[in-house]
Write a structure and sequence with these properties.
Length: 437
């Protein structure tokens, strides 16, 4: 494709103001008119006149009929509005992180660097796709090679972020192919780190909101005192089911329901939306294949409205499936661990822990003979072992470390011994030891 020489800033500004897609607005940069069939005649006339004055051959790939018609609302298209909202959604990830984590609740320097890279990458890739690189359409969206409109750009961007990869829009030249390839790697790194972390945090907040119980103070949750009282009245192990391990299906049910909702939305949209109108079976097939990120490409979006819907739908639907798969794997691990657990073995471990964590004590109230009993430390050790919060080896290692610090006859160690033993941060230990001298 031959490129144009000098840009026409006035036409670019007028085209953008009137809601023309990015590719159509850049007459001076690429020499092609608006693809929006309902645009103002004066704008079309200006574009046509500018093309007639260019001293080089006209590229037929850039003709107005090579663009899909969009839905015009006043002087801007509905698809363009939603495409900009998609960009704003991706760009808002740093803000959402601040809200979920809190400005002082764990937002690290790495988060800030990732956020800056995300913003730069998003602006850069939208600019390249709509102004600089040219693309082919293997599914017949257009003929020849041309830059993308912003609607097509966000559609391709969502395919890249979710790894769906229909193959209906591909870079045309070798340079464009290499640049897109590097952008794919960067997009996957950002999506896998920053965006998925945000989705996970949002899911945790939602789960907490759904499972939260009202507190006695009416402020939305139990108080620390009521929690402590509840735990104090709860047995360490429920021997009624003879198992210490359980399977939690909560996350799997919630994520499975979310995925089913996105599949249903996709099926209804691809079947009923004008211009898409796939059969019921085709809509089910396309929805499942797309959200599973297989993306065979047999069925793809064919309208600008379908493309901008697909951008949002893929981003959230693929995340929902990822959460469901993770929850399913966790449930299977828990199920296998529970089935391997023998109730008789659990009972034997109970008696072993009782023997290991008790000592002979003087006759207690109401008893005339000495008996076996536990002090606070021994009960803590017993509880950790019985509830699988710690292993016998971990407990023994901690006890061996305590013995190495040379406790006195009463079984106590001083803070100075703790610091000298290297159990404190180096700077803190030096300051405290120096102050003690």
């Amino acid at each position: 494709m031959q490129r144009l020489g000098r840009p026409l800033p006035l036409l670019v500004a007028v085209g953008c103001l009137c809601g023309q897609p990015a590719g159509a607005a850049q007459v001076g940069a690429h020499g092609f008119p608006s693809h929006n069939q309902t645009a103002r005649p004066s704008i079309v006339a200006l574009h046509a006149k500018a093309l007639e004055q260019q001293p080089f051959p006209y590229d037929p790939a850039l003709k107005a009929s090579n663009y899909k018609k969009e839905t015009t609302l006043f002087c801007v298209t509905a698809e363009r509005i939603f495409a900009v909202l998609f960009c704003a959604l991706v760009a808002s990830v740093p803000v959402v992180l601040v809200i979920l984590v809190g400005p002082k609740g764990g937002l690290t320097k790495a988060h800030k660097i990732e956020s800056g890279v995300l913003m730069a990458w998003l602006l850069g890739v939208i600019f390249m796709f709509t102004q600089f690189l040219t693309f082919n359409s293997g599914s017949g969206h257009w003929e020849g090679a041309r830059p993308l409109t912003i609607v097509e750009a966000v559609y391709l961007l969502s395919q890249i972020l979710t790894t769906v990869g229909y193959g209906d829009i591909t870079p045309a030249q070798p340079v464009a192919q290499v640049l897109v390839a590097f952008n794919v790697i960067l997009a996957l790194c950002l999506y896998g780190s920053l965006i998925m972390e945000t989705v996970d945090l949002a899911g945790q907040r939602l789960a907490q909101a759904l499972e939260g119980e009202p507190s006695s103070t009416g402020e939305g949750g139990p108080t620390p005192r009521s929690k402590a009282k509840e735990f104090a009245n709860t047995r360490l192990t429920k021997w009624s089911n003879t198992r210490t391990l359980t399977v939690d299906f909560t996350s799997m049910r919630q994520s499975g329901l979310a995925f089913l909702v996105f599949v249903t939305i996709g099926v209804l949209f691809w079947h009923y939306f004008p211009g898409e109108e796939k059969t019921w079976l085709q809509a089910v097939y396309m929805s499942v294949i797309t959200l599973s990120t297989v993306g065979f490409g047999a069925f793809t979006a064919t309208t600008p409205g379908g493309m901008v819907f697909g951008a949002f739908w893929m981003l959230f639907g693929v995340a929902a499936l990822g959460a469901f798969i993770s929850a399913f794997v966790e449930v299977m691990f828990q199920t296998k661990a529970m089935e391997r657990e023998s109730p008789d073995h659990a009972k034997l471990k109970f008696f072993d822990y009782v023997e290991e964590c008790s000592h002979r004590v003087q006759a207690l109230a109401g008893s005339h003979e000495d008996d076996m009993g536990m002090d606070q430390y021994e009960f803590l050790k017993f509880g950790l072992l019985l509830t699988n919060k710690a292993t016998e080896e971990e407990i023994k290692n901690i006890e061996a470390r305590f013995a190495h610090l040379s406790p006195d006859a009463a079984g106590n160690i001083s803070i100075e011994q703790l610091l000298q033993g290297g159990e404190a941060p180096p700077t803190y230990a030096k300051q405290q030891l120096a102050a003690g001298k």
